[in-house]
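re the bet — no i am not wrong, look at it urself. input seq straight from the record:
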Amino acid sequence: MGVTGPPGPVMDRDEVDRALARLGAEHEAIETSLLALQDHAGRRLLEGAELTGVTKERWASAEASITLLWTYFDAYTDALRGARDIRSRRRWSSREDLAELTELLRGESVTVAGSAAGTAATANAPTLHGAGRLSHSFSLTTLVDRMNELYASSLDMVVTADAVWSALPARIDLLAAELQRTRALAHSVGVRPGEHPAGDDLERITHTLTSLREQVVSDPLAFWVRAQGSSAPGGGRPDTTVYDREARALEDVRREIDAVLTVRQDAEQRLVRLRDILSRADRTLAEARTARGEVLAKIAATEVPVVSGPPTVLQEQLATAAEYRRHAQWHRLSPLLESLEQKAEDELLRARESLTAVTQPLAVRAELRGRLDAYKAKVARHGLAEDPFLIERYDAARRMLWSAPCDLRVAGQAVLRYQQAAAELLTAPRVPEQGGLEDRRGEQ
C-alpha cells in the first residue's frame, strides 16, 4: 500500500490529477487485499472454531482490527469519492476548488466516529489518541498507514492459524490411522497394555495424539514457531515437536512388533535348533565324563577336572518356550528365545572346553608317543636302528608310555633322554681311530 505526499501549498491541476490517480490505485489495492482477507479460508475457520488459549485472545483482537479496518476503508472511500466529485465539477478547476482539494488530499480531512475508532483499543493494533472523543480526524496518509498496520497484524494471525491447521491435523490423522493398524497387529500377536511394554507405549501414544489434535484445533497459535528476524505475515513454521516425538515412538513399537512377528514365523525352527544345540552340549559333557574315567585309569599323577552335569534350568526354559509357542504368546516367546539362544551357545562352548580340559593328559601322552616314534624312524634312516644303547633307551620310554597308569612326567623325561641320545649319535663323528662312541656310551 502506497502513501500520498505531505501537506504543502495549494496543488495545481496536474498535481491533483496525479494524486487522485495514485489514490485510486491505492484504493483498488486496499479493497483487493481486504476482500482477499475476508474470503481467506483461515479467517472462515477462525470464525467457526471454538478457540482457546492464545488463539482465542488474538482472534478477538484481530476481529476488532478487521472491523476497524473496514471502517477506515469506508471513510477513505468516501474521502476519495468526495475529491473526485470536486474535481469533476469543471474541466479547469478554480482556485477555490484546488484549495479545497489540497485540504482534502493533504490535510486531516477524514473523520471517523469515535465509537468505531475506539474499538482499536481491543485490537492490539495502533490506537487513536483520545479514545473517548466523539470523532477523530486523519489525513489520507495517516489513514493508509493505520490500515497497513491493521491489515498486517490481522493477516499474520489468520495466515498463522491456517498454516498450523493445514499442516498438523492432517498429519496427526494419518499417524492416528497408522496407530490403529499397529494396535490391531499388536493385539493379534499378544502385545497388549499391561502385558508388554510396547502395548503400554501404544496406549500412551494414543492418548497423546488425541490430546494433541484437540489442542491444535482449538489453539493453533500455540503450535507456531516464528522465524527469527522475520516480519512478514505468517513468517515461521508449525511446531511439530510433540508430533515428531510420537511418530518416532510409534516407529519403535512397529519394529518391536515386527520382531514378534518374526518370532511367530520361525519359532519352531529356532526351537528345533535350540534342542539340537543343547543335545550336542549334553553329548559332549557325557563324552567328557567318559573320557575322565579313561584318563583316571590310564594316567597317573595328574589333576583331572570334574565334569559337571547338564544344566536343568535351560531345559526348563526350553519347555517354557515351547509352551509359549503352543499358546501363541509371541511377545513372551521373543525375549525368551533370544536369551536361550545365547545361553545354549555358551553351554555348548563350556561342554567343549570341559572335554578339552579332561582329555589334555591323553593328548600329552599321544604327543610323547608320536615324538618317540618320529625319532625312532629318524634313527632308522641313518642306520642306527640296531644300536643297543638307543634300543635300551627306546624300550624304557615305550614301556612307560604304553603302561597304565602312565606317569607323564617320568615318561616325558624318558622320551627326552632317548631324544638326546639319538641326537648325539646322529651328530657325533664316526672315525674308528677316534673311538669314543663306545666309551661315551659306557660313561653315560
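see?? Residues 118 and 369 are 116 Å apart (CA to CA). told u. also The radius of gyration is 51 Å. so pay up
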